[in-house]
Amino acid sequence: MDTQNLPVNRKQSIPVARLLDRMSEELEFEVIGGYQGIGRPVLISDVNRPGLALSGYLDYFANDRVQILGNTEIHYMEQLSSALIQRRLENMFSFEIPAFVLSRDLRPRAIFLDMCNRMGIPVLRSRRSTDEVISRIIVFLAEEFSPETIVHGTALDCYGVGCLIVGAPGVGKSETALELVERGHRLVADDVVTLRRRREDNIYAETSPVIEHHMEIRGIGIIDVKSVYGVGRVRNSKRIGMVIELEEWNATAAYDRTGLIDEYVTVLGVKIPILLIPVRPGRNIAIIVEVAALNYRLKELGVHPAQQLNQRLMNLMSDEDA
To answer: N or C: which end of the chain has fewer CB within 10 A?
Structure first.
């Protein structure tokens, strides 16, 4: 699998409207001010609590982040005189601010809302706690700004292990995936697989919103796996645990027959185990993928069958030499 030439995409910004749209149900957002600025860009996958900025210290004001206002910030503003809070806010608003998010259903001072409406800075409010608002927004933004790429292959959940099957066109990726679905495993995406690196440095495969869970089977055409096999045989996302590369059998190639050395491929900066599986008539690739997935789970538990067998053989030879 050649990962050197994979195109890597990363969003440079997202509009506040996307945050509102995607997180409204989860955080029960309502817009209480500055709605005309809903298209303002969010440029970074982090948030800021502007307590120091409200106190007048702006030297290191992280203005390019979503600003979170909790009990501390709102109660602090209530203690300031109207003239002082107006002067502090004017200094803050001289910077470009994407949006303010209030937690705990808090209500800011009227002068704050008036200035946000005048400056076109969206003010969103949630009934959730401040910690919950912060953590959920950070997770959402981290996913939105995470690097991604698209590969030609098939992604499945096999015994709980995310398997990305790649190989040359016509080698049998989709047919193998279809047999695995028939055997009870779940399809994530076929042909066009979006790979995204999440914050915890894991690679996730995601289905395409256009193709979804459709597959192209030569001789049959396009099939809808969800309609044919049911919703229990598909999923929209899965962390990739291993890459399986299929290739036509090459009699001159030296294929691994012991499994003592683990091979890896780097995708979006993350190392993932890879297996090279030769394909020829008579080989049941679906069963091989199943065994590979189960073997991967054993290794995750600290059990390496090939190395254990090799160690027993080495011990036996050592005893015989003694």
So the answer is: C
The whole domain housing 267 covers 148-309
- Spot the catalytic one: 191, 196, 226, 304: 191
Q: Catalytic residue, from 118, 152, 183, 271: name it.
A: 152
Domain boundary among 104, 120, 144: 144
Residue 151 has which token pair? 């590969």
Question: What Å distances lie between residue 185 and 9, 83, 155, 169, 320, CA to CA?
Answer: 30, 65, 11, 23, 46
Residue 152: active-site member: yes
- Of 40, 173, 186, 233, the catalytic one is 173
2, 257, 319, 321: the catalytic one is: 257
CATH at residue 298: 3.40.50.300
Torsions phi, psi of 101, nearest 5? -125, 125
The pLDDT averaged over each successive group of 10 residues in the chain (322 residues) is 73 92 92 93 93 93 95 94 93 95 94 94 95 94 90 95 94 93 95 87 90 87 92 95 93 81 89 93 92 92 83 80 62
